[in-house]
Amino acid sequence: MSPHILVVDDDALMRRSLGLQLEQAGYRASTAGSAEDALALTQRDRPDLVLLDMGLPGMDGLDALRLFKKQADTPVIFVTARRRELDTILGLELGADDYITKPFNPDVLLARVKAVLRRGAIQPGGQAEPGRLTVGDLEIDPAAHTVSVAGRPVELTAREFAVLHALALEAGKVLSVDDLIARVWGAEFAGEPQVVYVHIRWLREKIEETPNQPSRIVNVRGVGYKLMAQE
Length: 231
Description:
By secondary structure, this protein is an alpha/beta fold.
């Protein structure tokens, strides 16, 4: 399986450009426009390497680096326009595996990516599989890609599974349609928000006792959806 690389940058053109270059080089690329979306995506689809912009809106790159390392010890390369030596030193001390400053030569970036992945491959141990999630009588096993309700297996498509997994990671909390699009379809999704409504409807048909009166995937009018535990 091709290594999965997550590009985190608030510049949409940069995200698209890096994502295309990585895919042309044989990698699987995902993108996020903020650290918050990137961390949520990492819980659902863990990357082998993160290309992380230091100057992000909201949570900045240094704070995000701490969480990436704490959450999954994921290798991180800083991609930054900041040339201040202090930022670079601080980033590396916090655990960044490498850094590259904008503008950069794509071949140089790909060489850095290969080097970091190669270093990671020879480390002892390796990464643990993401753990099972239990929300009441609903169980999700990301490693096996299975779902059961009250012990009954439920067959889901890959996208239905991703939507349910995103909701389960924040069980009891409301996720907006924009949140779900960013976490499941990615920052570059250019389609209509109706795609979320359709997948929620399909999920309800499969996991709700009464799909027209849902008690698991609840709509909070004007805000979004939340997954509620049922015993």
